[in-house]
Design a protein that fits this description.
Rossmann fold; D-amino Acid Aminotransferase, Chain A, domain 1; four-stranded parallel sheet; 12 helices; binds adenosine-5'-triphosphate; binds magnesium ion
Length: about 375
Amino acid sequence: MQDRTKLPFGTPVVGVLGAGQLARMMYESAISLGIAFRVFANDENESAAQVCADKTLGNLQDIESVLKFARSVDVITLDHELVPSETLESLVQNGIKVFPSPAAVQYAANKGLMRQELAKLEYPMPKWLLAENLEQARNFFTKFGSKIIAKSPTGGYDGRGVWGINTESELESLIFPVLLEEKVKFVRELSAVVVRSTHNQAVSYPVVETIQSNGICTQVIAPALDLDAERAGAAQAMALRIADDLDVVGVLAVELFDTGSGELLVNELAMRPHNSAHWTQDGSVTSQFENHLRAVLDLPLGSPEMVSQFAVMGNIIGGQHEDLHRGLLHCLARDPKLHIHLYGKEVREGRKVGHVNAIGDNLEDLIFRVTHAVDFLAGTIDE
Ligand SMILES: Nc1ncnc2c1ncn2[C@@H]1O[C@H](COP(=O)(O)OP(=O)(O)OP(=O)(O)O)[C@@H](O)[C@H]1O
Ligand SMILES: [Mg+2]
């Protein structure tokens, strides 16, 4: 660990638990703001650990080593929500500033707790049940005419831990407790991303449309098309209210189902920079990564305004093609206005390894260019 006393006087030090691509992209913003940035990584090959000079290798279950790391920084924040709650709680008990707090993070880390809390607060959601046993699951299945989704309350991401249930016998393979939800017939999925600082300043990015394939986000369109100002404003207001109700500090993403009848239902929450706002790196005045750092350090937040009429983000999902850099040559030569972000991750099937942003005022053209680059880099097309 770098010696703090050698840093220029007054330099804030942020520590991140987890060293994936979100930490890596936060680090880019930390560099430009002159913030010292430390990551607690599991492995030196993780996305942020590769680039961050100041890294500690360890296990997030090992409370003592996380505590030692945390004592070397001004504030702890998170790269992902899988940090054990015992670890986060013990940091707080030891007087460490943790943002978002463990009390808030539990609602992003545990979908069952999230449903219970948001139900208490009367937010609109799909019908749900935290089933404790097979009998309860069968009743729910019967009630919803066999159109249900089962979710592992904890540990899921990118659609892992989410299963469509079509026959009653499939219920038998579930591990209880399990979150069951009606399968919503949405017309599209939206995401409302807000950032809230420790003293309650908040900003809201434009509401975006997210496109999923097999439960994994593939494309984001900012702003969501044909969302009238009233409904967009209502979605933003709801996200701001949730941030306040749950006392979230940093980025809060509220994933929403647009049912087409004017109703927006909350799917789930994320409390860290979120894939649905990666477009902000190139498409807004202040990116979500910079605003997340500003929020946890209680600095004034930057403008979330867009710098162009539209922004499109496409995720590069790993396939058979291992060499991402070979594709760069073609993509960079063909389209000098693209913004390509690669995470330094080894390509594996179904894994997010980078994304492409494009901004401008011709949406069709942006979608075409982003889709081409993503497919070319992932190796699903070769011209
Ligand atoms: N109740 C539901 N009705 C219909 N579709 C759903 C429902 N819940 C989830 N889905 C679909 O599955 C996708 C993944 O679900 P969810 O967002 O809960 O899982 P996740 O793996 O935690 O996602 P993330 O990658 O955002 O962390 C959703 O984006 C949506 O397309
Ligand atoms: Mg999701």
